[in-house]
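Please produce the structure of this protein holding flavin-adenine dinucleotide.
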Amino acid sequence: MAGIHLTEDEETVLKYVASFANNELKPLAGQIDREKKVPEKIIQRMRDLGLFAACIPKEYGGAGLSFSFLTRLIEELSSACPSTALVLDGALTLFADPVIMFGSEDLKKRYLPRVASGEIGGLALTEAGAGSDAASIRTSAEKKGDHYVLNGSKIFISNGRLARFFVVDAVTDPSMGHRGISTFVVDSDSEGFKISRDIDKMGIRGSSTVELVFENVKVPLNNLLGEENKGFRVVMETLDSGRIGIAAQALGIAQCALDEAIDYVKQRKQFNTRIADFQGIQFMIADMATKLEAARLLTYRAAEMWDRHEDSVRISSMAKLYASDVAMQITTDALQLFGGYGYTTDMNAERHMRDAKITQIYEGTNQIQRVIIARDILRDH
Ligand SMILES: Cc1cc2nc3c(=O)[nH]c(=O)nc-3n(C[C@H](O)[C@H](O)[C@H](O)COP(=O)(O)OP(=O)(O)OC[C@H]3O[C@@H](n4cnc5c(N)ncnc54)[C@H](O)[C@@H]3O)c2cc1C
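Below is the modeled complex.
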């Protein structure tokens, strides 16, 4: 299996994570899907294991581990329960990372230790009229005295019910298009901040997805993340690394589906033969494993490039695009290998297929990843 460069300490932590994922989390994945909630005791276990501190710098109470480690962490958790993995992924890649990259010293000191100790964050960018075209958001932020006042709404916001704070994008200069967008850190207990709806979903059903409303929400001037009117860059760079997290989530889902399918074909008999002995089945397994390995290589390369501060826009989009497409193919083929049983809710195969689908959609659909990759190639050629 493809390797990724980790320190000895990171390898050791990862062994604990794998044990937690296999022994404690995986047995609950079906329940989490049915009950549409990650149990608080699981989130607390992740806190106790120090997972929220992973990539927070040491000076802000974190463990200072690499993005490569975070990638493996998300992959391991996703192989057990992708909804649970998303709680951590949202807190770290969507909330903490932009604060680390663009936050003032004051913002870092106020928020990063809280994330490290397990308070959850999220990113609120998407609006009903602004999905792929994120530059067309309408939520407004007007400067009034020592505050900005936010008005508008956001849709499909992950960690919605769990998060204590969000990175939020809003328009500060409507005449400037994407050059008039600013990014803020907004506390979810602010007056006028409301969850207007929980959104029911096909997969990752344990993840809380909500619609948010901002009604005259006062945000202190020093909660501006980066410079005024330069918030679009903040969110685009956030998504560059965030996409590697989604690729890792896709790898975990695909690995779990493949492992369970392999176990099944080795014990299921038809025509007095193990179905694993049919060449048609063997070729499917070979193709699934090969695609997964290629996706893993691409994802690990993207994570390592991010750690080395190399330009990784293209590679992170490639990793997200390929790993998520492969996850969808592998989970579909895995279900096929279970025959009629795979189509029932008695088996996990249908859940893996439902969970895989979102990885082709969020943090930029795969059509948008192709737009990003092609633009980058054509610019450099
Ligand atoms: C479960 C879930 C969790 C999410 N979590 C978050 C979150 O935490 N924070 C957040 O801000 N957002 C979140 N999102 C939003 C997600 O990122 C958007 O749904 C996604 O970017 C697509 O936007 P859209 O749904 O408006 O689709 P649209 O942009 O309307 O796209 C519709 C279709 O048109 C295609 N399309 C659009 N433009 C082009 C183009 N230029 N070329 C070719 N095809 C194109 C798309 O690929 C898609 O197939 C989440 C979404 C879901 C479903």
